[in-house]
């Protein structure tokens, strides 16, 4: 009888001959499955983003006939948005999917905040130009008045026409949010971080603002971007607050959108579509490109400026700001020429 003995069946696997080969095969199988899973997960992520932007894009409130008729400035590379915050006193929302009241009624709303946002080709650079609401400008068909009267008198078409004729910039898309939407959007993204430069008190709103960085909820943020009393720069300091908020909001939105995070994209798009109205020329594809393009935008490639002011004066009993129109147009040309 041979002296060679077979190991008992209960022997541990390391005592069996040839165990290294099955373990290598198992390791290879795991690695192959992992490598296969990566493109599958990326595909699901991309598909989720595609689905989310189409699903929620179909639910975005589009503004019909938002653009003015007649000649307009030439189109250029990149995309220019005109963003307006309206001071509707309506008790019901007027913008976004939650709107239950009309966006515009003659004389009922004025544009409290007005910004031109220029995204360079590929959405990798951005420039924001704020136009103070008290800017005294020509309003087509109405003579000269404060720029915020344009929305009151003629809704989006007259506001766009006024800004285009003032700046020489073609507006590609228009977005508007009211006070209700502003508060809801801020809360929906989890609040927006804002750094308050110094302690101040707003006697009109009866609010204290303490220095430091705060994540503001909708109510707090609305009070902050509306403040002009109790600030040394008045309206210009208010614009700085608005630009601060926009920078923080873009950071929140950018953080919520990702090719591998369709659920984050869905939450972000849901918040935006419930609160913001856009022109009817903005397609779902435009919304998707914008959402994904924001991922590449960082603070190093963004700039903020304000329309240049010559002086302030009282006109027909109203406080008004007189702009340097030549310098304003030069600023706008520089925005359009950015890479």
The topology string of helices and strands comes to HEEEEEEHEHEEEEHHHEHEEEH
- Which architecture name does CATH use? 3-Layer(aba) Sandwich
Q: Work out the helix count.
A: 8
CATH class: Alpha Beta
Strands of the largest sheet, in order across it? 1-12-7-2-3-4-13
Low-confidence stretches: 1-17, 30-46
**What is the total domain count?**
1
Assign a percent range to the helix content.
25-40%
Q: Determine the mean pLDDT.
A: 80
The N- and C-terminal alpha carbons lie at a distance of 87 Å
**Rg, alpha carbons:** 27 Å
| CATH fold type | Aminopeptidase
In terms of DSSP E residues, the strand content is 15-25%
Total strands: the figure is: 15
Biggest sheet character: 7 strands, mixed
Short description:
This protein has helices spanning 20-57, 149-167, 179-188, 218-226, 235-256, 262-275, 284-293, 325-337, and strands at 61-63, 79-86, 111-119, 126-130, 136-138, 144-146, 173-178, 192-196, 200-202, 207-209, 212-216, 277-279, 302-306, 309-315, 318-323. It is 40% helix and 22% strand.
What structural keywords apply?
about 350 residues; alpha+beta; seven-stranded mixed sheet; two-stranded antiparallel sheet; 8 helices; disordered N terminus
Describe this structure in words.
With 339 residues, this protein is an alpha+beta fold. The chain has a single domain (51-337), classed as LCP protein (Aminopeptidase, 3-Layer(aba) Sandwich), CATH 3.40.630. Helices cover 40% and strands 22% of the residues. The chain has a 7-stranded mixed sheet with strand order 1-12-7-2-3-4-13, with helices on both faces. Strands 5-6 form a two-stranded antiparallel sheet. Helix 1 (20-57) runs parallel beside helix 6 and helix 4 (218-226) packs antiparallel against helix 5. The longest helix has 38 residues, at 20-57. The relative contact order is 0.17. Mean pLDDT is 80; it is low at 1-17 and 30-46.
């Amino acid at each position: 009888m041979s002296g060679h003995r077979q190991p008992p069946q209960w022997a541990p696997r390391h005592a069996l001959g040839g165990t290294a080969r099955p373990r290598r095969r198992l390791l290879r199988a795991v690695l192959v499955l992992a490598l296969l899973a990566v493109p599958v997960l990326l595909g699901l992520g991309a598909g989720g983003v595609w689905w989310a932007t189409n699903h929620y894009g179909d639910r975005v409130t589009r503004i019909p006939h938002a653009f003015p008729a007649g000649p307009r400035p030439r189109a250029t590379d990149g995309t220019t948005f005109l963003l307006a915050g309206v001071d509707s006193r309506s008790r019901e929302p007027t913008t976004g999917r939650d709107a239950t009241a009309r966006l515009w009624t003659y004389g009922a709303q004025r544009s409290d905040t007005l910004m031109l946002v220029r995204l360079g080709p590929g959405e990798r650079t951005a420039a924001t130009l704020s136009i103070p609401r008290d800017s005294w400008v020509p309003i087509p068909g109405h003579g000269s008045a404060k720029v915020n009267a344009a929305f009151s008198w003629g809704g989006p078409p007259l506001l766009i026409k006024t800004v285009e004729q003032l700046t020489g910039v073609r507006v590609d898309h228009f977005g508007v949010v009211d006070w209700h939407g502003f508060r809801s959007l801020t809360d929906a993204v989890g609040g927006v971080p804002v750094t308050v430069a110094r302690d101040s008190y707003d006697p009109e709103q009866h609010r204290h603002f303490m220095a430091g960085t705060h994540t503001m909820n909708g109510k707090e943020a609305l009070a902050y971007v509306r403040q002009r009393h109790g600030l040394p720069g008045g309206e210009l300091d208010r614009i700085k607050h608005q630009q601060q908020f926009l920078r923080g909001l873009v950071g929140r939105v950018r953080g919520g959108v990702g090719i591998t995070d369709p659920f984050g994209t869905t939450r972000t798009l849901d918040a935006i579509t419930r609160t913001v109205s856009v022109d009817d020329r903005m397609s779902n594809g435009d919304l998707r490109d914008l959402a994904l393009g924001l991922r590449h935008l960082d603070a190093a490639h963004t700039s903020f400026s304000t329309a240049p002011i010559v002086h302030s004066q009282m006109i027909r009993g109203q406080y008004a700001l007189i702009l340097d129109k030549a310098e304003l147009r030069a600023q706008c040309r520089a925005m359009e020429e950015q890479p």
